[in-house]
Amino acid sequence: MNLMLTAQGKAVRNTLVLTKKHLAIGREQAHTSNVFDCNDKIAPVTDDPVDLDKHRGMAAQKATDVRRLLLDVEANSQMLRKRQSELEAQLLALPAACWPEAAVKVRYLLTHYQQALGREDTLHHRLVEAVLADLNRLLGDA
């Protein structure tokens, strides 16, 4: 007889041959699927991940890599902004007790300012470099 067993236990015509063993398996598995095909092999469950990238074409793999990279960059930039905010809060928390503590704040502020400058503003870049060099020389950090 050519039948397929449904989840409700009803037999429907198909090209499959059911045996008593198949019917027993079908009853046990009926709760997991609407239709149980008795000739289907049930793959064993493993903890090994499946690498789906192996089954994609090169264009799809590159697109996936770009998406993953963008997500990593966004996560890293969010973490950097958070850490920068924490540092700035600490720098603002207390006034400097000595010149070296004030120099740390000045270095941070000048470096941040220098990064915001455009490439064409060479005069201000040189001025920042000169002030940082003066701080290093006067504080003995050179």
- Domain tally: 3
Ends distance: 92 Å
Mean of residue pLDDT? 78
- The helix-strand sequence is EEHEHHH
Return residue spans where pLDDT drops below 50 for at least 5 consecutive residues.
14-18
What spatial form do the alpha-carbon principal axes imply? elongated
The biggest beta sheet reads:
3 strands, antiparallel
Structural class: mainly alpha
Number of strands: 3
Q: How many distinct helices?
A: 4
Keywords:
single chain, 142 residues, mainly alpha, 3 domains, 4 helices, 3 strands
Q: How would you briefly describe this protein structure?
A:
Helices cover 58% and strands 10% of the residues.
Q: What does it look like?
A:
With 142 residues, the chain is mainly α. Helix content is 58%, strand content 10%. The chain has 4 helices and 3 strands; from the N terminus they run E-E-H-E-H-H-H. The protein folds into 3 domains: 35 residues, no CATH class; 41 residues; 49 residues. The protein has a 3-stranded antiparallel β-sheet, with helices on one face.
